[in-house]
Amino acid sequence: MRLELRESPPIWLAGLAPVLAVAAALVLCAGLIVWTGESVLEAYALLVKGAVGSRFALAETLTRATPLILTGLAAAVAFRAKLWNIGGEGQLYMGALAATWLGTGALDLPAFLLIPLLLVAGALAGGSVLIVPALIKNKLRVDEVVTTLLLNFIILLFVNYLLEGPLKDPMSLGWPQAAPIVDEGILPKILAKSRLHLGFVIAIVAAIAIWLVMRFTVWGYEIKAVGLNARGSAFAGINVNGTIIRTALISGGLAGMAGVGEVIGLKGYLTLDLSPGFGYTGIAVAMLAQLHPIGVVVSAFFLAGIYVGADSMGRAVNIPTYLADVLVASSVLAVLVSVMLVRFRIRRG
Amino acid sequence: MTAVLRLENITKRFGSLVANDSVSLSLARGEVLALLGENGAGKTTLMNILFGHYVADEGRVEVEGKPLLPGAPHAAIAAGVGMVHQHFTLADNLTVLDNVVLGTESLWRPWQNRAAARNRLDTMSSEFGLTVDPDARVGDLSVGERQRVEILKALYRDARILIMDEPTAVLTPQETEVLFDTLRRLVERGLSIIFISHKLNEILAISDRVMVLRRGKIVHEMPTSGADRHILAEAMVGHTVTRPKAESMVSGAPVLAMQDVSLRAPTSGVALDHVNLVVHAHEVVGIAGVSGNGQVQLAELISGLCRAESGSMTLFGETIANPTPAKVVKLGVGRIPEDRHAEGVIGEMSIWENMISEDLRALPISRRGLIDHAAARARTEAQIERFDVRCPGPDAETRLLSGGNMQKLILARALSREPGLVLANQPARGLDEGAIAYVHGQLLAARERGAGVLLITEDLEELLALSDRVAVIYQGRLSATLDAKTVTPRQLGLMMAGHDPSEEQTGSGGAAA
Amino acid sequence: MDILEILLTTGFWAATLRIATPLIFGTLGELICERAGVLNLGIEGIMTMGAMAGWMWVYQGGDLWGGLAFAAFIGMLFGLLHSGFTVYLGLSQHVTGIGITLLASSLSYFVFRMLLPDATTPPKIEPFQPYAVPLLSDLPVLGPSVFTQTPMTYLALICVVVIWYGLNRTPVGLAVRMAGEHPLAVEAQGIDVLAVRTGAVMVGSALMSVGGAFLTMSAFDAFYFGMVNGRGWICVALVIFASWRPGKALLGALLFAGIDALQVRVQQVSGAAIPYQFFLMAPYVLSILAMVVMARRAAYPKALLAPFRRGDRA
What we know:
The structure holds 3 protein chains of 3 kinds.
Chain A: E1 2-5, H1 11-36, H2 40-52, H3 55-80, H4 88-103, H5 111-140, H6 144-164, H7 199-216, H8 218-228, H9 230-236, H10 240-267, H11 278-288, H12 293-316, H13 323-343, E2 344-347
Antiparallel strand pairs in A: 1-2
Chain B: E1 3-14, E2 17-28, E3 32-36, H1 43-51, E4 58-63, E5 66-67, H2 73-78, E6 81-84, H3 96-101, H4 114-128, H5 143-156, E7 161-165, H6 173-188, E8 192-197, H7 200-206, E9 209-214, E10 217-223, H8 229-237, E11 254-264, E12 270-280, E13 283-288, H9 295-303, E14 310-315, E15 318-319, H10 325-331, E16 333-336, H11 340-344, H12 351-355, E17 366-367, E18 370-371, H13 373-386, H14 403-415, E19 421-425, H15 433-449, E20 452-456, H16 460-466, E21 469-474, E22 477-478, E23 482-483, H17 489-496
Parallel strand pairs in B: 3-8, 3-9, 6-7, 7-8, 13-20, 13-21, 16-19, 19-20
Antiparallel strand pairs in B: 1-2, 1-4, 4-5, 9-10, 11-12, 11-14, 14-15, 17-18, 21-22, 21-23
Helix pairs in contact in B: 14-15
Chain C: H1 3-8, H2 10-35, H3 43-59, H4 64-88, H5 93-115, E1 131-132, H6 143-146, E2 148-149, H7 151-169, H8 171-181, H9 183-188, H10 193-219, H11 231-241, H12 246-270, H13 276-295
Antiparallel strand pairs in C: 1-2
Helix pairs in contact in C: 2-7, 2-10, 2-11, 2-12, 3-4, 3-5, 3-10, 3-11, 4-5, 4-10, 7-8, 7-12, 8-10, 11-12, 11-13, 12-13
């Protein structure tokens, strides 16, 4: 058996790939549900109901999707340039940190100035931490996967230190959390009686903006070209190292904005459990979307639904909510295979 | 005389391409069979099927009357087939001995018998005159020595049938002679050899019988004694293609001047050692040399991919201290890279995207960072037309183009802006005769128009047909240039092996008008 | 008490060996995979899986060595999955590895919660006990601490020797190294490259898994969430630091563990002067530094990250 590149993969097949992958993941996880002794159909029905079954559920899912769109875009942009940024989690916290630093009273500005400023500051903070691994990759060829991963641990410990030390809110009754964001810095809610905030709109706008950049600009061309063939890009006159740095800024910036959004949109203050792994899940979001910016919105919504739905399912039946993580992980692996089956055809001999 | 090897009705398809179309051949004991065909005719595919790298869609292979298990190199090796690949299958970081013994011992034996292996290797190398140090790192060996290791690898496994895939492509004329002596010695001992090549004079020199492969089919078969260059050339190409030759022309002002340029190699040693070189308008300067003697760095320097550590480079009278590809292109250098797939194009991008890749940040292709798709497409369509790129359209993926059409795309990108200097690095490598003639014609047209052309090639025939002056690069040192009309391949061969040329001809450096 | 004094305590050296043990297993495992040309970023998840699987075996009534074998077996299965994706299908080693880590760790937690739904405080098992090596443990000064370790630490040290020998002195080791340098050369010698790579990834993953199991079966006695805590990633960095050599891997793991052990002790001495989080950062910062320092000299296996597809047109 061997694989042969298809000369022109049919378009319908390319669109079908992620759907098939998710279906495969659902079937695989059905095995786990059977093991728990619960009914597969009932469990999945509960999951869907918990995700989109009511106004409240839908609002929760969209709220959860908000940071995932941004971390998903962060991964998608970076992966396009083959910059393996696995540091979304750390960059998210850096963004949150910047918002906390500037948004807890340091600046006395009206909302229409303070909110954009916090977003930009968070983006810069997130982008700048990715610059380091990107530079090390350019200059020394050190694999950025490991450096970005390790930076996550370092940044989390750093945030931990700040929350127990300099940034600790004296009114927090001993909990390691920062002072609350001033009212002018808080993103307004966009749906009554829900937690859905303006960050969702910002995330959608970001997705569209990234799509436009990738499709119509020289920067987008360069990011794609460097990712597909760095040597060929350099030969053609593209500044490969510069493109990597630019990509790092954009990618880290998006992840940083996710952190800002969670702090000023959802929680109102920084804690150590701000993100339950949004940075890592963003990778899954991007993979499932096949790195397409608009696809990221869809897949972020889908994965957010899985997590929100699994929480509610876990309350109703005796299935550990880790099922959601297993479902997401197996979707990622399945989508890899399905995309490959689109590009290649299996031949005997 | 019984056949030691028989291929029957081998057919192999890759997608829509039929690489081998019902090919049959047989090989007698002690025979040298030449398999002649131009690039892309299906020679290598056929041999890869014989050796088990590929599985044929149809047909069968028999060795000594017994059918050979398809798709299994181990079966081919066990049956006594040895293959010397065109691109050596040796690991640079391991020793000669490691490379030779791999696969000769049972994998599950808990130890290696290195002493015995070394003895056997030593015996064989002296027996066949293939001297090589068993403990040398392969990466430190010369190309000729590596080929010896490849042959020893096959012999070490008691090969009775040896497949040599384009073995002379990387050798100097003198090294080729040595190789032929070795092959004759092997044949005397009863080995049978399949010799794959597209070089007619070599086939006439070494083979007993010749089969010509064209577009996957055997089109001609005859004893070598009854063949001549003319018959073979016509059989190989199917019609007469005449490659253009350089007409003499008065050269103009210098377009490229390098003075005492030195550069260290990325790993160790010197890549370029005080190189001096001048290329004038209206002339082709050819650089010959065995691969790995500094050609890569020379080309990278002029392409703007690296910078000299000492010495100076002047393009069109302007001294370039920090070249970048973009800067060099803007100054008027048209570049044809050595490796089309790795450097020349980005295979997974469309044809139009590749066509504009050198003008990304310039009008009319882009304005304020936005790409003008309509302008890009219009330019691409015009270029496709002008350079006769056969493709489904500007949106097709570039990797799907044939080698010749991909090279035409690169020519279109490099030459349409009428550069003053053309850097052509192995411009005809891997192309069929028609495409080679086209590429050569374009290079000569550029020269006619007033460009200086720097041609780097390992193919001496190409070098002598196109160049006005030639120089040889050996271990990073560039010889003085010689007049291409008077220099012989033999002389060049000696220089490529590092011998002093002054014994045979004095340099004629300044051919400037 | 200054640093010199700490270095002279026997407890320090014992701790160094203990901290080094999972790193030795993990680094050797990653090293084997990479020598064959496959980057295995599933390591973090596979270590988590090993920690859970080995512990669970013992908790369910199995014996300790059986648990270790079980962890190795499960590790192999994930290795097989990884190589199915990267070796046979030729998919991106980066993305697959991350995917395997997500899958293996989430599956570990799922299974743990499934089998122990109500456990609020993590239940404990009876872990491996320290074993005093006869004679050697009687040596003065360091003997009692260094040679009174759990059997798994000795196993790790034995593995270093076995893997060095296997890679450098056996036919199969040569095939593995060649698969990472020039896979076509392996195939041209009639050896199945894909099988060699798969075998290497499976053996490597088994070692990673055993390294994870050390945490729950030897260093501690329970399974916690997030207990691998980046050790897998550190091993990936250590492989580069070790220039893909088993002996240097041992050295790197010991050096690393030594600094970690030192850090804990300095922290106790320094009191609150330096926040403890900065000490906890040390291993991660060190890993990055190690990679940066060694980067210039790093001689990557040439075919690392490059998939090999049989019958591909060159």
